[in-house]
Design goal:
- The chain is mainly alpha-helical and about 450 residues long.
- It contains 14 helices and two strands, in the order ββαααααααααααααα.
- The protein is globular and about 65 Å long.
- It is a multi-pass membrane protein.
- Keywords: Membrane, Transmembrane, Transmembrane helix.
Length: about 450
């Protein structure tokens, strides 16, 4: 079945429903307009920008280290595997949302899909995994912003800078949907391309002009390293927490799969370029020192054009990244508090502001209280992120198919190849979670 069909290209809707359970998968492809659902305004190109900004952030500074830990072939392997798994899972997550029977209600958040599949316990588990993980990512962005602005203006401590950035983000709470946030994402794209060019060019220049031998590895045969860095790659490609919110806010949600593929193409290109160029310039030394520490040495005054441009580009790309990632968390809290996204009343506006302010305060508390945010990210990437990004979408999708087709065996018989591939994804992820989490916990500190 093709999701973005020509016949549906002119349909202005927000929520997509399909034919009732019991019909074939092909027959279920007929889109039914949900007149009661929220009608979005976010265009396809802004959707691409929003997905890119949902993913690109911490990965920029982590991917060169992935190549240093796994070698040329190992780094390319886990990075490619990460984008394939994440892209496949995102398409299944969208189908799970789009195919949810109408009697299960609207699916505007990830936990709504968990509720549709497994009731209140599914909703609670999904909310716990998604929002604890993404709050940690948002906190890490505040730390990243604090670190880099401290380097630019060292007279103010990192902790104070984190609080300053938290206050800076308060006005962005008035951006209600992905349509408004996409304007910020479009600006962030310029910063991402600048950062991509700067870090890649720096790596190439250092690699070419270095007078000392740079040590590389073709492949590092360490399964724990591969598993841990697979988790890092999955974290870097994660957009699942934004999918339901973006589908809600898209003018043409049936175009989501095509939009996500364009976005993942951009994300992979940026990550691969930065990873390869960074590793080329600094080699095995990136295992112990992230590329940002190589470009801008810690505990030293910032000097040189490379350092200033890199720091400014990181700051400018991290700002929209935080805004895009915070929106799904805030949207979920608003649904819990029964704040309608289309409610323009003063009372709803005040409640919405307070809910989003609470989200910012929560991520700020994590940012200033956790002593080693990078180690925390390794654990999140190896455990909750792999489960959230690669496993949950496939599990929920199969559950929705079971509802539509009447039984799980009917789904297996009618989708044999797809089922085998999903089983391969789930089978690969389980040892990655176990081994990766062990390695991350072992290195925590």
């Amino acid at each position: 079945m093709t999701i973005a069909e020509e016949s549906s290209s002119n349909v202005e809707l927000k929520r997509v429903h399909h034919a009732p359970a019991g019909e074939s998968f092909e027959e279920a492809g007929k889109v039914i307009v949900d007149q009661e659902g929220h009608h979005g305004k976010c265009s396809d190109i802004r959707g691409v920008f929003s997905i890119v900004l949902s993913a690109i952030g911490m990965g920029v500074v982590m991917l060169p280290t992935v190549f240093a830990s796994c070698g040329w072939l190992g780094g390319a392997f886990v990075l490619t595997l990460g984008v394939l798994f994440a892209g496949f899972a995102v398409s299944k997550l969208y189908l799970g949302i789009a195919l949810t029977p109408t009697e299960k209600g609207h699916v505007y958040t990830y936990e709504d899909l968990g509720r549709a599949c497994y009731g209140k316990w599914g909703r609670a588990l999904t909310a716990l995994i998604v929002h604890v993980t993404m709050s940690g990512i948002c906190a890490s962005l505040l730390v990243l912003l604090g670190e880099n602005t401290t380097k630019l203006i060292p007279s103010i401590s990192q902790r104070i800078w984190i609080i300053i950035w938290a206050v800076f983000f308060i006005p962005f709470t008035f951006l209600r949907t992905m349509h408004e946030v996409s304007y910020v994402a479009a600006i962030g794209m310029v910063s991402i391309l600048t950062l991509f060019a700067v870090v890649s060019a720096n790596g190439l220049m250092v690699g070419i002009t270095s007078t000392e031998p740079i040590v590389y590895d073709i492949f590092v045969p360490d399964f724990i390293e591969i598993a841990t860095n697979f988790g890092v790659c999955i974290l870097s490609f994660n957009v699942t927490n934004s999918v339901a919110t973006l589908v809600r806010d898209m003018a043409k949600p049936t175009h989501f799969v095509a939009v996500s593929r364009w976005a993942y193409g951009i994300i992979f290109t940026v990550y691969f370029g930065i990873g390869v160029c960074g590793y080329f310039g600094y080699g095995r030394s990136l295992r112990d020192h992230p590329i940002m520490d190589s470009i801008v040495p810690p505990n030293q005054p910032v000097s040189g054009a490379w350092a200033y441009v890199t720091l400014i580009a990181i700051v400018m790309s991290s700002v929209p990244h935080y805004v895009v990632l915070l929106l799904p968390i805030a949207s979920s809290l608003e649904y819990v508090l029964n704040i309608d996204v289309d409610d323009n009343s003063r009372r709803a506006g005040i409640k919405r502001f307070l809910a989003r302010l609470a989200c910012i305060i929560f991520t700020t508390i994590i940012a200033v209280s956790v002593p080693n945010i990078s180690s925390l990210l390794d654990i999140l990437g190896s455990f909750t992120m792999v489960f959230m990004v690669a496993m949950m979408p496939c599990i929920y999708y199969m559950r929705i198919q079971q509802m539509l087709l009447g039984s799980f065996m009917t789904y297996i018989k009618s989708h044999k190849v797809e089922f085998v591939f999903i089983c391969a994804v789930l089978t690969w992820c389980v040892p990655m979670i176990v081994v990766g989490s062990y390695g991350a916990i072992k290195n925590f500190g």
